[in-house]
Predict the structure.
Amino acid sequence: MTTRVFDLQHQLDMSVPTPADRRSTRTAGLKGCGLAAILVVPVAGAGEAPTGWLFAGLTALAVMGIAARWPRIRWGWLALLTGGAGLAVPRGPWGSVGPPLFVGTLLCVILWVAQRTNARRDSRPERGSRERAARVMVGFSGERHVGRVLASELPQEYALINGLKLPRGAGDIDHLVVGPSGVFLLETKTMAGQVVCAPDGTWHRTRVGRGGTPYTAYIGDPAAQVQRNIFAVRQALRRRLPELVRGTPFWIEGLVVFPHPKTELHTETSRVPAVPLAETTFRICTHAPRRRLQPAEVEAVVRALLAEAQPGLATPARQSAQALVELAVLLPVVLVLVFGAIGVSRYVQTRAAVVAVAHEAARAGALASSPSEAVDRMRQRSALVAPGLGLDARRMVLGWDLTRFGSRPGQVEATVQYPVDYADLPLVGELLSTSVRAEHIESVDPFRSGVAAQPGRGG
Amino acid sequence: MQGKLFSCRGRAQALVWLTLAMPLFVSVAGLAIDGGVLLDERRELQSIVDGAARSGATQLDMARLRTSGGSDVQLDPTLASQSSHAYANQALAASGGDWRTPPHVQVEVGSRRVHVLIQAQLATAFLRIASIDQVPVEAEAFADVQYGIHDGGGH
């Protein structure tokens, strides 16, 4: 029997959810929605300012209003609908429809994700319900029972820490045993029936109901929980006792302990050994470690872990806020880069098209019989090829130099200028305002008949 | 104390993430810009070689044409080469590309065909970070002599 037992178990969570808790769960998606709207509405609406901002803002308000009034609406389908509309609706006649559809789709996706998360959480018994209380009580009594048995069976040179909570651990560590044979991390699962660990790592339990019907239910993976806690213990020891962890491999053994007498285990494929309570102490004491711990080292490990134990660290709320700050810092940078890349691609595309139009116009002009005909040919040819190259012929400025048309060798020079449109690109549209220009000189074939020389320049 | 320590570590983690992500974003943007400039210059070079080849293809051997009574139509290699070179050099000077070394213009003149090839090394802006100071660009074009009665075309 060991007297070195440290009980750090926290109070049972048997509280009933308050209206504020319920409200908080329901409005979890709304908060994310509001934050996303603040970030996205100015960006999305900038392409069609100022109506784009107005419509995008109204859409965000409408979506959040619907979410507050009818939280159980099918947001996934709504997101698909708005997203599909965003892709299908032509932008030409209704340019202002783009920003609200984009904002609506994004907010619907956020609400859909929040809805799924809540649904998963709701599948567990509700806080304050009898089923939840019963489960907590069974689990807690099982842990207490295991703690008592271990304390009574382990020799004095072993220390037992119950309910240790470490930063970045997966919940409480039910029991941690430190002794000459090593450090053992125990996760207690109090459940009757047949417990099976499938080869793919999933765990399920089969038990017989009151009517005699067997039923199977999946249970959380205790091996994963143990492994994550082993990582947390190792990290804690690395910080507190670097000289102990360095050098000879320092192994931390994990065990999943089943104290219920009616548990039948089929867990050979588990990554962490699963054992009934009756075998636990024997397994710990007879374990042959790579390195035996000296009494002073046992003491140092226990002291280090107790010093690391701090309740309430790294709350999910803080982590979530941190993620939001990261998102808020990164989003504008990423958006500028994305829209900048789109702008560059648009410039290159326009420039290639303008070079091609200048080329075509000069060639057409060089085949004319006279400078005046050359001008007509250049105009007609450029107007003909521009739409196929993605240019609006009305915005294109065509220039020419026909002063060398009749000389030998004759030349026709065509110049095309075209403004690149960045107005619909948020963040960068206002900064960029360029037009591209290209020229091409084409030689006039001196052996063609009917070439008349009437030099001219225009545009 | 422990809480403060952890909180600081969390902030540092965000900074590390940001620091690691930024070069990636900038690299992608830089690659897009360098790639865009490369495509643009390639298109410009193609336009120049097309014009140079056609310019050379207008230079017929007049002496041969006259002595044959108009039946033997062949290019004057010297004049054709000079014309193509002159056109290419003039157009390259006007284009103002950011060339690492002056573009190399190569003209081959056959009896009825002109082949122009321009090879250049384009200076990069962002790829220099990855020790790629220049990228090769080249364009080539052929122009054939046609004679007889043809439709004016152009439309």
